[in-house]
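Review session, final week

We close the course with one last complete record, chosen because it touches almost every idea we covered. It is Larval cuticle protein 1-like, a protein from Spodoptera frugiperda with 114 residues. Go through it on your own first, then we will talk.
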Amino acid sequence: MKSIIFVAVALLAVAAAAPVEKEPSKIISYVFEKQPEGSYVFKYETEDGTKREETGVVREALDAENNLQRVIVVSGSYTFRNDEGELDTINYFADESGYHADGKSIPKVPVARR
């Protein structure tokens, strides 16, 4: 009888410790506008403060062989809840030089001293 009670208590403890799945936040605003030449604006926000805003602009740039190419330069930001439950914002842009992001949760590269 003691072993049945022990097993029941153990199962109850395991069930209580199981992670509870959180309901996804509802989207409270959403915009996507695309222009015929390829430029766009995209943004959304959820009820918990999570959001993203992005703009893409078409421009011409030289490729590695010095040929003119159409590229989309992207810039924007996103805000999310970090592990401490605080809102954290990352700002970014991407162009022919690569992807660049900045925010308090992104480690900073130390500047080399000469």
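Two points worth writing down before the exam:
The chain has a mean pLDDT of 85.
Residues 25-102 form one domain.
Good luck, everyone.
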